Structures are given as C-alpha cells and as structure tokens.
Amino acid sequence: MEELRNKKTFNGGLIVSIKGEIMVPPAEEPPKDLHFLSNLDMVVLMMDTLWCFNKTIDVGGLDAAQVLKDGEGTLFVEAEANLMLDEIGDFTKPDPVTYGELVYRLLDPKNILQNPLLVAQVTKFKCGGFVLGMSWNHFVADGISMTEYMKSWAKVTRGLPLSNPPFLDRTVLKARNPPKVEFTHEYEDIVDVSNTEAIFKRKKGITKSFIFHPEDLEKLKKKYMEDGVLQRCSSFEVLAALMWRARTQSLRYNLDQQVRIQFAFDARSRIYPRFAKGYFGNAFLTMNFQCSASELLDSPLSSTIERIQRSIQMVTDDYVKSTIDYLEEPKLIQPHSSTVFLSAWSKLGFNSVDFGWGKPFFIGRITKA
Q: What are the UniProt keywords, alphabetically (predicted)?
C-alpha cells in the first residue's frame, strides 16, 4: 500500500493526505471455511458513507484516529486535511468529487471485488473535527446490519460490553428445496417505448438534496389524506409517491410507457421463525409497483400512496420465502430509465453512533458523480 497519497479537490482547496494504511487484525483467529451467502446477499455494490464529527473531546490524550484504530478488524486508513471542517461547505449538498476523497478506494480497481470488503478512513481536519469515511460491499451487510456494526464498534471504543452480539448464520435465509415460488415477482425488463435511455446517454445527471422539515412532512401527509382515500400515511410513502410522479412528469414519457418504483423493505420482522436480533447480513427485499405513465399522472396522489401501502402489506412470511426461492435462479436485473429505486435511511439509527465525542452532526451516503 502507498505510504502517502495527496488528493486535491474542492476547486484545488482541499488536500487530503494519506498518512498511513494498516490492516487491523481480528482479536481471534477467524474460521477458514467458506461463508454461506443467502440469495438476499447478492447485491454487489460499494456503499460509501460519511460520518462527520465536530471538534473532538480530549480523552486522555488519544486522538480520534488512534482510538478508532484500536477497535477490531478491518483495513484502517489515517488521513489529514488542510482545511477546517466548516470550510468544506454544506454536507447536505451533494458533492461526490470532494466527499469521495474522504472515503478510501483503490486507485484503479478492475472490478468491484478488488476493493476491500470493508474499509474505514479517518480524516482529521485543522479544527480538530474529523470525518469517518466508511466503505463496504453491500453483500457483506445491509443498512440495519451496518448500523449494529457501527454501534458495536462505538461501544468497544468506549470500553462498553456488546449488548447485541452479531448472529452470523445466514443459512436461516436459505432457499427451500425444492423452491416454492407462490407470488409474482416483477423483475423483468421494461420496454423503453419512450426512448428515454437516449436522454441519459446524452446528458450527465446531477445530484441535489431536497430538505423536508418535520412540519413540511406533516402538511404533506395531511393534504393527501383530505380526500378520504387514506386513513394514514407515512413520511416515506408520501415522499416516494411525490418524487415518483415528479420524475415521471419531468421525463415526459409516452403515456403508455410502463414505469416502476422499487424500494427496499426490511424483512426481519415479517419472517418466521424469528432469527436473532443481531443478524449480520442482508435481510431486505426489493418491493415493486408498476403502472403506465398516464395512470400515475392522472390518478390522485392518494391513490398512488395507497398502492405503495398495498405493496408493503404484501410482505408476509410466505412472500419473503417465495422471494428467496425465486432468486435461487440468478436474475440479471438491469437499471432502467423508467425504474426508480428508493431507500429510506432515516430510521436506520446511523446518527445515534457515539464513539465518545458525541453523535455525528451529519451522516449520509456519497452519491456517485
């Protein structure tokens, strides 16, 4: 590994210098046998996240990097930046080029599997604050599992015992033999009758954040419950419906174009028998709802929210097991311009992680440039 690497971004202002890269070994010799992956683990995608902490509190003269380094087992990278944290700007405004320098990656990996499965980079800023950049391969764990991992790491760092030990047996989500597919699972390609793919080839996408405060969400939910179609609705459901319709309007699909919304849904509370709370792996399903562009645009938003709710209600023990069995045969799921995927991070608990310097003032995923 390189001993030092300077990375210049933020219009030439930010310089991140890699000071050291070490492999922190596990406290105990890990088993050498193969590790079973369930059909829900087949998500080969690097997840890059930032955890931003203000000026650190003195803990016996140890700095953040040293304390975090003394935890258990992964690739650990120590870096320094030449700026104050507040000079970076607003972290809620996506800047994948700048923020990407705060997460370690191989310089030129030939494929995603050349990246470390899990790596932590601590970048110290001149003000005393630091950013913890985490990168992990999604087939290692989903968001809920990584939340538990981070909370456990934080507890060990603070000298506390683990309250929720990891449960590593992924065979609890093994497909049945023979497979028993009892539901329709929508993963087939959608025909692009609108030729929307050409737009994405011609134009480069941009990233942007839209901030909804709690009072805004309450107003939206109240507004779309006024017609009596809905008895209740969640913030996720109303935002998903709004975003899906707005995107469909902006892309100007042919009215007969099929459009699809997909969203991640945690299956832990829906499957029987229940497995241990500390399950470490992937236990989420991708739920789908599909209709024509004209149906989506002409229907009241409350009807779209209701359809999303019905999709969520479909997630039963039988549906989860049917999905796992359906995925026993590998499926090539291609991204498509008429499909939008949503994942809600607000309830994962990432922002409650405390290594001893208080909770992060910002935590979020780095969107790709």
A: Transferase
Q: Say if residue 42's pLDDT is above 50.
A: yes
Question: CB 79: neighbour CB atoms within 10 A?
Answer: 25
Q: Which domains does the chain have, with CATH numbers?
A: 6-158+354-365 (3.30.559.10), 175-342 (3.30.559.10)
Catalytic residue among 63, 192, 266, 354: 354
CA quadruple 90, 95, 97, 101: dihedral sign: positive
Q: How far apart are CA 79 and CA 65, in angstroms?
A: 9
Instruction: Tell me the sheet residues that pair with 292.
Output: 258
Alpha carbon distance 111, 109 (integer Å): 5
Please say if 354 is a catalytic residue: yes
> Catalytic site residue 41?
no
pLDDT tens digits, 236-290: 999 999 999 999 999 999 999 999 999 988 999 899 998 888 899 999 988 888 9
Name the active-site residue from 95, 138, 266, 336.
Answer: 138
Q: What is the rounded CA–CA span in Å between residue 155 and residue 71?
A: 10
pTM: 0.85
Cis peptide leading into 178, omega within 30 of 0?
Answer: yes
Supply 105's token pair.
Answer: 């990656």
